[in-house]
Amino acid sequence: MEQANQKEAPKSFLKKVKDSTHHELHILGTFVRLGVVVWSGFIITLNYVDLPMIKKGNSGGDITFLASVFTGALATFGLDTSNSKSRSRPSKKEES
To answer: HSE of 35 in the Cβ direction (CA atoms, 13 Å)?
Structure first.
């Protein structure tokens, strides 16, 4: 009888997700995206900060992938990291 109660008590992960509301899944998705922003921002920051306990090579490392992940995660929140001043300037051909 105890084994039957143990099998009924724990729900599978998919059953919990199915029972979750849209609002709960939206909050979870927001926290996951925020975690990606914080993680990638932290790794990018470590590339530029010199810590006395950690020795870095002369190259400093390539952060292109992390920068693209960071930019993409920020874009999901509606933030744009590009320089908008260069777009608003008219070109020399348009001025004449």
So the answer is: 6
For residue 79, CA distances in Å to 37, 70, 71 come to: 12, 11, 9
Q: pTM score > 0.70 for this model?
A: no
Kindly report, residue by residue over 21-40, the tens digit of the pLDDT.
877 888 888 999 999 999 99
Q: CA nearest 40: which of 5, 9, 86, 75?
A: 75
Distance (Å, whole) CA 52 – CA 55: 7
Locate the domains of the chain by residue range. Answer: 14-79
Which stretches of the chain are assigned E, i.e. beta strand? Answer: none
